[in-house]
Amino acid sequence: MKLKQSLFVVFWFFVACNLQAQKDTIAIKLDAFSLSILKVKDFSKGYSRILISDSLAIKNIKSLTDVLRFNSFIYFKENGLGMVSSPSFRGTNASQTAVIWNGININSQLNGQTDFNIVSANSYDNVVVRSGGGSVLYGSGAIGGTVHLSNTITFKKETKNNLLLKYGSFNTQHLSYDFVKSDEKMYLNIGLGYNASNNDFKYLNSNLKNDNGAFYNYNFDVNYGYKIDAKNQLKFYNSSFFSKRDLSRTLNAPSNDSYKDISLKNLLEWSHFLSAKENITTRVAYLFDEFKYYDNKENLDNFSIGSTKIKIAQVDYNNAISRKVKINGILGFETAKAEGTSFFTHQRNIISSVFSLNHQLTNSLSYGIQFRKEFQKDFDAPFLYSLGVEQKINKNYTLSFNTSKNFRIPTFNDLYWNPGGNLDLKSENSYQFEIGNAINFKKFQFQLNGFFIKSKDLIQWIPNDSGVWSPVNVNETKNIGLEFSANYKTSFRNHSLVINANYSYTSAKDLETNTQLIYVPKNRANFLVDYNYKNFNVYYQSLINDEVTFLIDTIPAYSVSNVGFNYQLSAVKNKPNIGFKINNLYNSFYQNTLSRPMPGVNFQLTTNLNF
Asked: Tens of pLDDT along 308-337?
C-alpha cells in the first residue's frame, strides 16, 4: 500500500508541474540534442568522463572492444579475437560495468554483462566512458563505471552518405553504410554493417593455428525523429544485431562448438517541451536477446538456448529552475522475462524512482546529488545516493570529489542456472569515494583521479567442491587505484599533432584471502600519437598490460602496438580516404585469456567515402 501511495504522490507531482508549466508562454528553442548525453554531462558532477571521437573509433573499427581498449581505462578479457569480450572497470567484474544505449541499461539479464564484441562500433554518434558508480542513474550493475552509446537526432536540412570498406589478414572483411536525410521537421538515419573473418591465424611460438575461430555478424539500425509542433517531438531508435561465432580452440584442446546471438533494441521517445527550460520525456522500450549454443556445430538440431524479453516504461522530467539549478526526476517500470534450456521461465518486475539536482553554487563551486529507490518482490534494493562536487581553484585547476552507494542484483543465471545456480545469493552492495584533479591549459590537459571502492557480498563464479562452477557471495572486496590521463594538441600551418595517454593502477583484493581478484591487472597504460599534414595522416598506438591471475595460473604481462596511415584523395570526386594499418606491429605473443593467444602481426586496408 505504501508503494502505491508513494507512486501516486510522485505521479501527481509531475502532473502538477506539467499543468503549471503549460501556462508559460516563453518561446521555445529546440536545439539538436541527445537527452541521454545531456544527462551524462549535467548530472555527473565530480565524475570523470572520456568522449571517444569519430576519428578514434575509425582507427579501431574492428569492434567496440578495440575502440575502448586503446582509448580508455577499461581492461577487456577477450576469449580470442572476435570471441566473448568481458570488461573490467576499476577492478570490478564484467557485470559491474553497465552499458547504456540511448539512456537504457542494456546489460544482459542472463549473465549481467555486455559482450563488447557483439556491439557494433559504427552504429553510434557518441561513445562516452563515465568512470565511477552510476547505479543511481542507471540501475543495477553500474558499479565500476558506465559506457554510453548514443545517437543524436538533429533537425536541420542535410543529406549524408558514408561508406566504409575494410579488408585484412585472415580474410577479415568489414562493410558499413550510413545514410542521413533530415530537414527542419524530420530526421532519418539508416545504418548497415557487416563483419566477417576466417580468423584462422597461426599461433606464435606454436605449430597450432586458431582452428574453429570463424565469425560473422551484421547489424541494421534506424533512428527517426519527427517534430510534431513547436513543443512536441517523437524519436524512435532501433538497433538489430545478428552474430554467429565458432568458438576457437585453446592451446590445450581443439573445439567444434558454435554460438549464435540475436539482439534487438527498440526505443520510442515523446518529448513535450513545457517551456524553454522544462520538458517531460516519456519513453517505452522493448529489448530482445537470444543465444543458441551448439556443442557440435555439425549437428544443428542439438543446441541449448536462452532468451530475455524486457519491456521498459519511463517518465523523465527535466527543469532548469534557474541558470544555476537543474532538477531531474524519473519514474520507471521494467519487466524482464527469461527462459532457456538451463532454467525454467522466470520473470522479474522492478519499479524505480530517481531524483537528481545540479546546483552551481558560485562561479567556482558546483555540486550534484542523486537518489534512487527500487521496489521489487525478490530482493530488498537499498536506498542509493550519489554526491559529486567540483571546485574551480583557478582558471587552470579544478578539484573534484564524488561518493556513491551502488548495487547489483543477482542475474537469472546466478539464481537459476542448472547446474550451479544459487538461490541463496544476496545483492551486491558497494560504497565508493573518488578525488579528482584536472589541469587545463590551451594545449595540455592532465587529469589524476584516486578512487576507493568497498564491496560487500560480491557475486563471483568459482568451481565448487564437485568441480561445478557456481556463484557465491565473496565476503568483502576493496579496490584502490589511480587513473592518470594526459592530452596534448597543437597545430601550425598545415601540420597538427595529438598525443593522448592513459595510465591506471588498480589494487583489487578479496579481503578474506588478501589476494588480487582474477583478471585485474595492477598496471595498465595506452597511448596514441596522431600526426596530420595536409591530406596525410599517420598514427601510432600502444597498449601495455600488467600480468593477471586466474585461480592458480598467471597470464604474463604484454605490450601490443599498431601503426596506421591514411590519405585523402582530394583530386578525386567526393575525396575518399584510403588507409593502411599494421596491427601488432612487433609481432608480440600475448593472451587476454589463459591459453587463448591473440594474432601476431596482421594488416588491414580501408576505404572511407562520403557523398
From this structure: 999 999 999 999 999 999 999 999 999 999
Residue 408 contacts residue 112 (beta carbons within 8 Å): yes
Number of domains in the chain: 1
> What does the pLDDT read at residue 350?
96
pLDDT single digits (tens) 61-87: 667 898 899 999 999 999 888 899 999
The predicted structure's pLDDT at residue 60: 61
The string of DSSP letters for 59-79 reads HTTT-HHHHHHTTSS-EEEES
Q: Could you tell me the pTM of the whole model?
A: 0.91
Cα angle vertex 65, ends 63, 69, to 5°?
130
Whichever domain contains 244, its CATH number is: 2.40.170.20
Domain enclosing residue 530, as ranges: 2-610
SS3 track for 276-321: CCEEEEEEEEEEEEEEEEECCCCCCCCCEEEEEEEEEEEEEEEEEC
DSSP at 209: B
- The contacts found for 436-439 with CB under 8 angstroms, 24 or more apart, are 436/46, 436/48, 436/398, 436/399, 436/400, 436/401, 436/402, 437/397, 437/398, 437/399, 437/400, 438/397, 438/398, 438/400, 439/396, 439/397
Per-residue cell: 522: 595492477
Please name which of 604, 556, 558, 557 lies closest in space to residue 583, comparing C-alpha atoms. 604
